Automatic annotation (TrEMBL):
Top EC category: transferase
Catalytic residue positions: D157 (proton donor/acceptor)
Protein name: Acetate kinase
EC number: 2.7.2.1
Cofactor binding annotation: Mg(2+). Can also accept Mn(2+).
Function: Catalyzes the formation of acetyl phosphate from acetate and ATP. Can also catalyze the reverse reaction.
Pathway recorded for this protein: Metabolic intermediate biosynthesis; acetyl-CoA biosynthesis; acetyl-CoA from acetate: step 1/2
Binding-site positions, Mg(2+): N18, E393
Protein location: Cytoplasm
Residues binding ATP: K25, H217, L218, G219, N220, G221, D291, F292, R293, G339, V340, G341, E342, N343
Keywords: ATP-binding, Cytoplasm, Kinase, Magnesium, Metal-binding, Nucleotide-binding, Transferase
Length: 408
């Protein structure tokens, strides 16, 4: 995303924050004009050897090396960088600060202004996402301390999937145990699936509630969803973001019994298995690489491990596409998004190869085109429109945050 060459901020902009355990992504964007004033990433927060901020605003890109003891220091650094660019956040008449919060549990189905009650509830459900929600809260507290007058809003990654049909949301496990531990399918990447599905319907020139679509969010994390008339009826991520598609470093679906074998025979602890499943699996576990560009280069060069990883990735992806076609019954569009989905023409072609009998046919020239515009890559004759829709979670978070504040 390129930040514009203009420092003067129109009232109503939103500061979007995505805080991870040692990183903080931010974007200052106008939710109406879509103008991006600033965009950046603070990394290696809390590392004694030092962190860094990659920052783009007012038409220039900078990267500074700086020690960032905690998230508050990172935010203070961002505020200072913006000030140097002529942007004073305290005077900018921001509509809101929009925080990405990964897990909303059963409590949150819509963006929420963060008051004491909402903050405590996010904290209460943190055990559902121990790697994600605690850093999100740290980000919320850090920004609120520096910008106390701007309303903070939480936009939940799970919210779009809040009303999945019960047969899709329920795991076949002892019902009492499931209730006690809040075990169900929650789904993630919801902001992206929602944004992309709306853009796809708009591109097709049809009301969102008339379009049935399969959205494939293929980034480092990856998820698929089946959306009937604007409402998700299934999604591949589950209780946690581990389930479903093969990802950069995560397993996706595996036999739950594998954990028993690793614990009993491999003498691995729960934390060992957690790290294995989350960090040393997926494409990286199979091939040593989780960057899809390298995987594709290695496949082209005939590398056996990368080829197997690629085949396993595609096998799972096609499995979900097939399942969601049957669940939806009628499919109007299949939509690719995120880093791999938007850029890797070969993945799109291979994922949908030989499906002419189902009304799916990719036009190779359209597929090869490189642009960041929404586009159709299927042939005109094909019954199902295959689209590439660049996702923009920051813009969607900004829009939802501004809307909830306007309703106050
Ligand atoms: P994240 O889940 O971290 O937000 P992204 O949506 O940015 O991830 O996607 C990251 C993935 O996209 C990486 O695997 C990267 O290799 C892949 N990717 C980015 N550009 C290309 C490209 N031109 N061709 C193939 N893969 C790409």
């Amino acid at each position: 995303m390129t930040a514009v060459e203009k420092a003067e901020i129109v009232p109503g902009a939103v500061l979007v924050i995505n805080a991870g355990s040692s990183s903080l992504k931010y974007q200052l964007v106008d939710p109406v004009t879509e103008q991006v004033y600033a965009d950046g990433l603070a990394e290696r927060i809390g590392e004694p050897s030092g962190g860094a901020v990659k920052h783009e605003a007012a038409g220039r890109k900078r990267e500074i090396e700086v020690i960032l003891p905690d998230h508050r220091a990172a935010i203070a650094q961002v505020v200072e960088l913006l000030r140097e660019d002529g942007i004073d956040l305290a005077d900018a008449a921001l509509a809101a600060v929009g925080h990405r919060v990964v897990h909303g549990g059963r409590s949150f189905h819509a963006p929420s202004v963060i008051d004491d009650r909402v903050r405590s509830e996010i904290e209460r459900i943190a055990p559902l996402a121990p790697l994600h929600n605690p850093p999100n809260l740290v980000g919320i507290d850090a920004v609120s301390a520096l910008l106390p007058d701007v309303p903070p809003v939480a936009v939940f990654d799970t919210a779009f999937f809040h009303n999945l049909p019960e047969e899709a949301a329920t795991y076949a496990i002892d019902a009492e145990t499931a209730r006690k531990y809040a075990i169900r399918r929650y789904g993630f990447h919801g902001t992206s699936h929602q944004y992309v599905s709306l853009r796809a319907a708009e591109f097709l020139g049809r009301p969102d509630d008339e379009v049935n679509q399969i959205v494939l969010h293929l980034g480092n994390g990856a998820s698929a969803s089946a959306i009937r008339g604007g409402r998700p009826i299934d999604t591949s991520m589950g209780m946690t973001p581990l389930e479903g598609l093969v990802m950069g470093t995560r397993t996706g679906d595996i036999d739950p019994g594998i954990a028993f074998q690793l614990a009993r025979v491999g003498e691995m602890t729960i934390d060992d298995i957690d790290r294995l499943y989350n960090k040393r699996s997926g494409l990286k576990g199979l091939s040593g690489d989780n960057d899809f560009r390298s995987i594709l280069e290695r496949v082209a060069a005939g590398d056996a491990a990368a080829t197997l990883a690629y085949k396993v990735y595609l096998h799972r992806l096609r499995h979900y596409i097939g399942a969601y076609m049957i669940e939806l019954g009628r499919v109007d569009a299949i939509v690719f998004t995120a880093g791999v989905g938007e850029n890797a023409a070969q993945v799109r072609a291979d994922a949908l190869t030989d499906l002419g009998a189902y009304g799916i046919e990719i036009d190779p020239e359209r597929n090869a085109e490189r642009t960041d515009q929404v586009r159709r890559i299927s042939t005109d004759a094909a019954a199902i429109a295959v689209l590439v829709v660049p996702t923009n979670e920051e813009l969607e978070i900004a829009r939802q945050s501004a809307a909830v504040v306007a309703d106050l």
